[in-house]
């Protein structure tokens, strides 16, 4: 079973769940807002009726009762007459509506008329006015949402933003802790492997020397082959030890390093696969050659695996003078990668091969990103036609001969 298929399904499920929660919360709050808005209109109406009773009545008991009812209503409102002049108001900012005695001039300062105008305009925008007849004249009651209702309208957005920020922080924390855990596993395993290989390799080298002496066989073909294999083992151990520690980068001609490896590699694969090597020989980058060879080996092996039968592999080295970068493009005529898998192929454990571990590309990505401060990605791919992987490194020599890639 492919764990990445699972991961994706979970991601979609969680996303769907989040959308359900968010829309449920928005729906419920908008339901509450609608009901409160309805009740606020009723309250404005009650206030308007009470005002009419106050203006029309001289019964003190009744007036006290009406005042009590009126003051229990918290909807900010203004009544205007037929000409639009303000008759009375309620629930507005008292610091701007009241008449105050000014200490300096000892005069009463009138309320702020601009404030009333502003409020009236705002109320006109918010709700249609309630018409009210007082002494046969048409008056209009304008009102706006109470502070409570305004806050409630904002509430779901504030709530969702807070939840989103929280989820983002949690996700970042989890993924960075998972990444550092992965780092520790990689580094630990690599160190242990290099350590375990070290002792038998040293013994093998010593045994070979002893054999040569004992059988007086300096030029024996079998011993030479054995020596080659031991050298290969040494390279493998060296790679693992470098993965387990901080790699030292040295400036190298990218062209020379890549060409050396391609030349070594191409004679070891089927004759049905042809190789083409092109590029700018002047580009330089900081490289750790044993680790970089490992990258090339993984990419070229994958290209060979992707070509079923006859095909070709093209390696090209070019650069971008403006961005001061070196590009290494490896193109094959293999089976191609689906666009949806462009990122997935770099995940550890993802493989489509029967005997693959799915580790090659994730190791390659680590070597390029963590040890060479570069980038690697699928530049292009088409199913059935082929794939181009691109490595981007920093050009350490801004040569005039650099071509734009
Ligand atoms: N050039 C390519 N063309 C088509 N598919 C590719 C190519 N390179 C990688 N892939 C796909 O990406 C998968 C992962 O590659 P990766 O090198 O990480 O693992 P692997 O080759 O399957 O196993 P191994 O651990 O032995 O390298 C491959 O199984 C293959 O499906
Ligand atoms: Mg591979």
UniProtKB/TrEMBL annotation:
<keyword id="KW-0547">Nucleotide-binding</keyword>
<dbReference type="GO" id="GO:0005524">
    <property type="term" value="F:ATP binding"/>
</dbReference>
<keyword id="KW-0902">Two-component regulatory system</keyword>
<feature type="transmembrane region" description="Helical">
    <location>
        <begin position="12"/>
        <end position="33"/>
    </location>
</feature>
<keyword id="KW-0067">ATP-binding</keyword>
<keyword id="KW-0808">Transferase</keyword>
<keyword id="KW-0812">Transmembrane</keyword>
<dbReference type="InterPro" id="IPR005467">
    <property type="entry name" value="His_kinase_dom"/>
</dbReference>
<feature type="transmembrane region" description="Helical">
    <location>
        <begin position="154"/>
        <end position="174"/>
    </location>
</feature>
<dbReference type="InterPro" id="IPR004358">
    <property type="entry name" value="Sig_transdc_His_kin-like_C"/>
</dbReference>
<protein>
    <recommendedName>
        <fullName>histidine kinase</fullName>
        <ecNumber>2.7.13.3</ecNumber>
    </recommendedName>
</protein>
<feature type="domain" description="Histidine kinase">
    <location>
        <begin position="192"/>
        <end position="397"/>
    </location>
</feature>
<dbReference type="InterPro" id="IPR003594">
    <property type="entry name" value="HATPase_dom"/>
</dbReference>
<dbReference type="GO" id="GO:0000155">
    <property type="term" value="F:phosphorelay sensor kinase activity"/>
</dbReference>
<dbReference type="InterPro" id="IPR036890">
    <property type="entry name" value="HATPase_C_sf"/>
</dbReference>
<keyword id="KW-0418">Kinase</keyword>
<keyword id="KW-0597">Phosphoprotein</keyword>
<dbReference type="Pfam" id="PF02518">
    <property type="entry name" value="HATPase_c"/>
</dbReference>
<keyword id="KW-1133">Transmembrane helix</keyword>
<dbReference type="InterPro" id="IPR003661">
    <property type="entry name" value="HisK_dim/P_dom"/>
</dbReference>
<keyword id="KW-0472">Membrane</keyword>
């Amino acid at each position: 079973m492919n764990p990445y298929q699972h991961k994706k399904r979970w991601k979609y499920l969680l996303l769907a769940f989040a959308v359900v929660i968010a829309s449920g919360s928005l729906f419920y709050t908008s339901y509450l807002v609608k009901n409160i808005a309805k009740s606020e209109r009723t309250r404005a109406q009650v206030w308007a009726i009470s005002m009419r009773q106050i203006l029309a009545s001289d019964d003190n008991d009744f007036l006290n009762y009406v005042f009590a009812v009126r003051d229990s209503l918290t909807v900010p409102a203004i009544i205007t007459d037929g000409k639009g002049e303000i008759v009375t108001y309620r629930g507005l900012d008292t610091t701007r509506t009241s008449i105050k005695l000014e200490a300096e001039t000892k005069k009463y300062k009138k309320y702020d008329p601009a404030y009333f105008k502003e409020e009236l305009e705002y109320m006109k925008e918010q709700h249609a006015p309630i018409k009210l007849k007082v002494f046969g004249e048409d008056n209009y009651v304008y009102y706006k949402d109470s502070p409570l209702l305004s806050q409630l309208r904002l509430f779901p957005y504030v709530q969702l933003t807070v939840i989103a920020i929280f989820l983002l922080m949690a996700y970042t924390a989890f993924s960075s802790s998972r990444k550092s855990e992965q780092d520790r596993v990689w580094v630990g395993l690599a160190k242990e492997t290099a350590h375990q290989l070290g002792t038998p390799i040293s013994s093998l080298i010593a045994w070979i020397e002893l054999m040569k002496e004992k059988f007086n066989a300096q030029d024996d073909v079998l011993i030479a082959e054995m020596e080659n294999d031991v050298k290969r083992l040494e390279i493998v151990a060296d790679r693992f030890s470098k993965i387990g520690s901080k790699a030292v980068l040295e400036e190298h001609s990218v062209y020379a390093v890549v060409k050396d490896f391609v030349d070594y590699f191409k004679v070891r694969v089927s004759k049905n696969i042809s190789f083409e090597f092109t590029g700018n020989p002047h580009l330089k980058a900081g490289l750790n050659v044993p680790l970089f060879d490992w990258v090339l080996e993984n990419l070229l092996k994958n290209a060979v695996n992707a070509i079923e039968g006859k095909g070709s592999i093209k390696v090209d080295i070019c650069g971008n003078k403006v961005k001061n970068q070196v590009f290494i493009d490896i193109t094959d005529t293999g089976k191609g990668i689906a666009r949806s898998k462009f990122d997935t192929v770099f995940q550890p454990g993802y493989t489509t091969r029967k005997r693959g571990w799915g580790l090659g590309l994730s190791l390659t990505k680590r070597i390029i990103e963590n040890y060479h401060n570069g980038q690697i990605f699928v530049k292009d791919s088409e199913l059935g036609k082929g794939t181009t992987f691109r490595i981007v490194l920093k050009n350490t020599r801004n040569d005039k001969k650099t071509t734009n890639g």
